[in-house]
Amino acid sequence: MKCIFDHDGLANKPDGTVYEERVVILRATGLEDAIVQGEDEAREYESISDSSIRYAGFISAYHTGMRELSNRMEVYSLMRESMLSREEFLDRYHDDGDERTQHYQVDNIQ
Questions:
Q1: Nearest to 19 by CA among 33, 5, 29
Q2: CA distance 103 to 78
Q3: What is the C-alpha to C-alpha distance for residues 69 and 60, in angstroms, rounded to an integer?
């Protein structure tokens, strides 16, 4: 499942907010169970701080259909239709320059 959190005090700009997309693997009996467990896990994660981490109330679950994890197994997928070009899409949703993560971009993909 994937949840969104916001973190107080991490932004570089005074009015900014740092948002975190957090993906966690859960063993569940179905999507409803995954959502219930995911929200419990999100509240637990939220509670590890002195209120600087807040669950934004967004959760998305993905069912792998597999009983065990294995190498190269897909654990999350989100599809979005867009009229944006590839570059615009990546800039808007995944690489706007304010991410706090390491990533690798392959420039010659057709």
A1: 5
A2: 18
A3: 19
CB environment 62-93: b (16+ within 10 A), e (fewer): beeeeeeeeeeeeeeeeeeeeeeeeeeeeeee
3-state helix, strand, coil in the chain (%, to 5): 25, 20, 60
> In terms of Cα–Cα distance, which of 8, 10, 4, 12 is closest to 56?
4
Give per-residue pLDDT as tens, 8-57: 888 888 888 888 889 999 999 989 999 999 999 999 999 987 778 999 99
What mean pLDDT is reported for the chain? 85
Q: Which DSSP state fits 63? A: -
Question: Is this structure's pTM higher than 0.85?
Answer: no
